[in-house]
């Protein structure tokens, strides 16, 4: 698998060359620095042994969505450190991993995609294949009965994926799998070995989706509603009004919105309005009362209280600082 194509098939209006500002390579590591017109941040790829890739992401998107299209037959592990990652592993069924969550999946088709709905993401991916994983296990443990089948079989029982939410052992492994010391590669190999052994343990507690996944059609509709509402933030709209206007069940909307963005609709919109107001306080000479109305508040008093709750100070003090 050519790892340089890891994001090359993303659905952009720009070419791959436009998205990458600079590439630095050494014997075992490739660093992609993005063009800040599209993405602020970087991706670092490490090949710890043949066909075993550790990929570290730390970026902020300046476009609405980012869909790296993966190859069929890949075993992929994702650990979210910050932000939120959307995974499509269930034949148009979408689920999400939040900070501290770990997911491992078998990519059964080339249509598997990732998306980062909060616009920022920091996390680690590990990709390999069944063949390369078997070679890794033989190199590590010699004449061992441990094979990739033990992991794949366990994943198949759970629908070709497993999710572990806030597992401390996983968090310790993934938090130390990448280092910058002289023996980073050796440490990464040891940590990856620990991870595989932990995942195939028959006693591991694997999280079930428990209904928290949605059809892509519903996901797309909720995202469009969110875009519409945030673009017209001066017109405050309730969930009941959303249900009537967009012809969507209010309970479905509320549950789906929280899964996508990690917060309730009301909490998300409240924070969005205040942060937009903060930008206006810094970059315009509009009065506090005028800004309050521009972000959908009927009076300055309610606006000031909400602003203080989120920003920790009054609008006036924020502007002076």
TrEMBL record:
InterPro entries: Homeodomain-like_sf, HTH_AraC, PchR_regulatory_protein, Tscrpt_reg_AraC-type_HTH. Keywords: DNA-binding, Transcription, Transcription regulation. Pfam families: HTH_18. Gene3D superfamilies: Homeodomain-like. The keyword Transcription applies. GO terms for molecular function: DNA-binding transcription factor activity; sequence-specific DNA binding. PROSITE patterns: HTH_ARAC_FAMILY_2. SMART domains: HTH_ARAC. Residues 223-321 form the HTH araC/xylS-type domain. The keyword Transferase does not apply. This is HTH araC/xylS-type domain-containing protein.
